[in-house]
Design a protein that fits this description.
With 87 residues, this protein is mainly alpha-helical. It has one domain: Up-down Bundle (Methane Monooxygenase Hydroxylase, Chain G, domain 1). The chain is 86% helix and 0% strand. It is elongated. The N and C termini lie far apart (57 Å).
């Protein structure tokens, strides 16, 4: 346990950031899985909607530094390719 005041504050702020980061990452993964499930079902309207949501979540994770920019680009490319091959 830290004794210095700034170290105590850092522990508190890191705990808050961890909660937000975990939420952003998990919502990204959930959106991707939901999109992949809708591709298997074959509903075009649902696929387009879920693709937009998934791309937004990936961008948010990239902008907050949780996902590397190249990984985000790879994920977005893969999802878009899935959508295009579905049609």
């Amino acid at each position: 346990m830290p004794n210095i005041a700034s170290a105590k504050k850092r522990v508190r702020s890191n705990a808050k950031k961890e909660v937000v980061n975990r939420f952003v990452t998990s919502s990204m993964r959930t959106a991707i899985k939901k999109f992949e499930k809708s591709v298997k079902s074959g509903n075009a309207d649902e696929v387009n909607n879920n693709l937009n949501i998934a791309l937004q979540r990936v961008d948010k994770a990239k902008n907050s530094g949780l996902v590397h920019k190249n990984k985000a680009a790879r994920i977005k490319s893969r999802l878009t390719k899935m959508k295009n091959n579905m049609e």
